[in-house]
Each structure stands twice: as structure tokens, then as C-alpha cells.
Amino acid sequence: MDRIVYDLYGRDERLRFSPYCWRVHLSMAHKGLAYRTEPWRFQQKEKLAFADHDKVPVLVDGEKVVTDSFEIMRYLDATYAEAPLLGDGLACQRALLFKLFVERSVSPALLRIVVMDLLAAIHPDDRDYFRRTREAAIGMRLEELHDPVQGREQLKKALVPVNALLEQSPFLDGQAPAGTDYLLFGSFMWAHVVSREVLVDDATPVARWFEKMLAVHDGMAGRAPTVRDV
Amino acid sequence: MDRIVYDLYGRDERLRFSPYCWRVHLSMAHKGLAYRTEPWRFQQKEKLAFADHDKVPVLVDGEKVVTDSFEIMRYLDATYAEAPLLGDGLACQRALLFKLFVERSVSPALLRIVVMDLLAAIHPDDRDYFRRTREAAIGMRLEELHDPVQGREQLKKALVPVNALLEQSPFLDGQAPAGTDYLLFGSFMWAHVVSREVLVDDATPVARWFEKMLAVHDGMAGRAPTVRDV
């Protein structure tokens, strides 16, 4: 059966940095599912018309087409029950809250640290599009948002409870990684692929967790090319 | 069977404001368990010697004695399986992360808003004890910590993901309240019982959620006396 994840790429086709796509890559590995990626750029909207959607990730699983990273994780749990990602009921609802925490509290702090590096990692043909859409969304120039020192301070505050949990637990979801680990990892991997900036102090639990996350599932994420390589 | 929750009280025996005890009150109601409270003050350590512990809440459930609010919630799930509070596996682990979010990101912001009112709500015989222990823990005078404007700003930032979830879900745990609702509610109720300060903007989802939480379980929390009453 053909399994495809449509995956954002940047100035080099090997640079894959979408936080939402990284959620899905790790989730596919968690389920032990083989797949190939289809490289995609921001403005290739027609290429996703079959999915009635304009963003990645898009998962094609045989006859089935699923959009949105969280919906893809839900779909994977519903279709491949072994090794839950989000789980059911209370577990899934709490993963949804954590997803919002990642998107509203963690990613904005990361963006302040890496935004100019992110722009440089994007395909040259997409940079104007990226700048225009993002500046409209945040209401300021990317150069004004850019503030690594403030971004790190904001990130450190947001991560206080995450660091507290990782003091007592090897992964966010317990003894092994699962859905909430992939939700947070996606955002860290996004920043890591596009930028050499220090995100968090090496001595913090979340820094050690990120290293472990690069190694899980046969080092899938750790092997991915970053701006250090290409 | 005798069921007792040892419960902190303040300058009036009817003022019950411990955030950890409020978690337990709502959890007992969630399980439909009748109980009585035993009023307790900070320095009545000998009164808890039977539990080999020095803080409330302490639950006495017949022959069983359980300390620590989260452990009590776990115990209630293990003993009274109907209507899970924390749930199992991923659900419980994610509730633990949310507990740390409440304790490390939400409660410190609330404390900056209400700390002087809290001091005034404490029993006169306990105020020196409270000041001494808290000032040692936070490394500053309570008067320096007190900053309702900054506290509200800090609280608003911390609650961004909570408000986003409550835009799409009536309670944190879904269609009905459960463990994570009680974890957050405990801290809001603590501030609400001791202070008239505005905590969050009335128009925010979390403000509407707090009103709903005062009404659940036959208005158990909404009936509790606050500094508005005594």
C-alpha cells in the first residue's frame, strides 16, 4: 500500500523543518509504519488540491487522505490501535490542551529566537510569501519580532512545568515517548533544523530530553539534515 | 464508614482556602462520596501525627489514611473506579504535567495578586509562621512579591492555552469536569476565597469556566464562605 506524507522543504530539498510534519514523522515511526515523503513548498497549493487543503502535513494512507497533524495522529490511533499516540477520552483531551500549550506558549517563544534563520532556510521563491503572510498574522515586521535573548527568557518561563516533569519522568508521556512528546518535539525540531541558536540551557531536563528524542525510533530525527549540514 | 478530610481554615473557621484541599473536596464530590471535614491550622502538626505528615489535605477513608492531594486523587481512582479523576496511563501522566503547570505557572501568578489578602485571611496565630516560611521559600518579603498588576499580566500569559481550549470545550477535561478541572480550580478557588481582587477578565473563557465550576456538584464550591461573607 502506498503511504505518503507531504512534507515542507526549504532552500535545499533535504531541509525539512515543519513542526507539524515532524509530529507526523515521529508518529508514523511510533506506529512502525513505512512511508515515503513527498516534498512540498508553501506555494504549491495545487499539489494539495486532491486533499482539499492548502497546508502540510497531508497523509495519504492507501485510499485515505487525512490533513492536519493532530487529526493525522487521531487517525493513526483509530486505524492502528497498537501503541497509542493520543489515546482515548481524558488522555486525548489532555493531549489537545498540551498541543495548545505548545502552539501558543512554546512556539511563539522559539519563533522569536529563530525567525531570521527560518526565513533564510526557506526556499528563495517562498520567502516573500512567508514574510507577507507571517507579518500580517503577527502584526509586525519579522525583524521586530526577532529577539533571541527575549525569546530564550520567554521559552524558559513557558517550560518551567515541562522541566519539572522531566525531572521525574524520562519522557513527557512516561517511560517511553508518545503523543505529547511528539507535539513538543515538532516545535523544537523546527527551530533546530533551521538555526544554530541555543534554545535552552544544556543542563536543563528539556535539553537532555531533546537529545533522547533525536535518538528514538532508530535516530530518525537525529539523521535529518539541518542547516549545520546543508 | 467514617470519611474525613483535614482542611485548612483561616481567621474564621468557615474560611477554607487551601488549593490542595479544594482539589480533594471537588474530587470527593465527583466520586459521590460523603465525608466531613476536620478544620486544621498550619501549626497544628501534632494533629496530623497519625498520618505521619505535616500538611493538609489528609484523607481518612475508614482504615485508610492518604496524604497529598494528587495521591488522594490517585487513591480515589484506584478505590472507586467509577467516574475517573486522573485516569490511567497516558491520561494520568498528562494530568501530572498539568498539575505542575498549575503549581509552577498559574499559582505563582495568582499569589502575586492576592498575597497580602491571603495573609489577612490566615488565622492571626499562623501569620508569623506563614510569613516566615513563605519568605524563606521565595527569597523576598511578601510585600515585594505583592503586585496585582504584574500578577494579572503573568496569569494572562500563562492561561493562553487554557483559554484556547475552553473556547472549544466546556471543561478542561471535555464535556464534564474531571481531574484537570479540579487541579486548576483549586488554585482559582484559593485566590477567590481570600481576595476580592479581579483575577482574570470577565469576558475570558476561563472566567466563565470558573463560574461553571462554582456551580457543579450542586454548587458545593459556590456555597463556600469567602472574605465577601465573613
TrEMBL record, chains A, B:
Domain GST N-terminal: 8-84
Name this protein carries in UniProt: Glutathione S-transferase N-terminal domain-containing protein
A Pfam match: GST_C_7
Source species: Vreelandella malpeensis
PANTHER family assigned to the protein according to its UniProt record, in alphabetical order: GLUTATHIONE S-TRANSFERASE OMEGA, PTHR43968
Domain of life, per lineage: Bacteria
